[in-house]
């Protein structure tokens, strides 16, 4: 019963964050699975990829119907991002236990900084060079595969700054990129982990169902809530989680 409560609360918080902010919810998934449900670290990372990809797919479908997804941005950003995800997932299998969460904590602090800053911009239509887009896509992909995050908090500003997309299109397009990266990363984890990587399909399904529903609900009310306040609150939660991870893991590593 306690585990079910954590699943409901955790999935709802992930979905609400994705629906209200367009990013950030995925970075909560690994700590929730690890600390609240007691999953082994690598199982939590692989499960996170499945959960994040599923919730993002549910959120992307309405955006696809409304024509808010930028096909040109997908073609430019998706290939290097997916290759980076493969590289990150391959590298993760060689990391010792605890290392992924130690990498995860600074990423959470970066996410908190991004959230506290607010919108990355409104897009001006100016696209950067192909190598800059490829480099950004690869970097986001490596983080996705390495620590099990969707990368939306990095993808959205990259699409705005490098590809000149307005925020609504950047958020919608990022959901599709998260789905692609999560699928690639999960596939790599399953191939590398084999029988030793036991994923709980029931837990994953519940997270996707509850989180997807919360995301769609939040998307409908997002315009009525001050985004700046939401981002600041979320940034504070991320800082607390990151500090907690560092305090628990650094003495062990030493």
UniProtKB/TrEMBL annotation:
The keyword Cell membrane applies. It is found in: Cell membrane; Membrane. It is a multi-pass membrane protein. Pfam families: TauE. InterPro entries: TM_pro_TauE-like, TSUP/Inactive_protease-like. Keywords: Cell membrane, Membrane, Transmembrane, Transmembrane helix. Coiled coil: none annotated. The chain crosses the membrane at residues 43-61, 73-92, 98-116, 132-165, 171-191, 203-221, 233-252. GO terms for cellular component: plasma membrane. PANTHER family: MEMBRANE TRANSPORTER PROTEIN MJ0441-RELATED, MEMBRANE TRANSPORTER PROTEIN YJNA-RELATED. Belongs to the 4-toluene sulfonate uptake permease (TSUP) (TC 2.A.102) family. This is Probable membrane transporter protein.
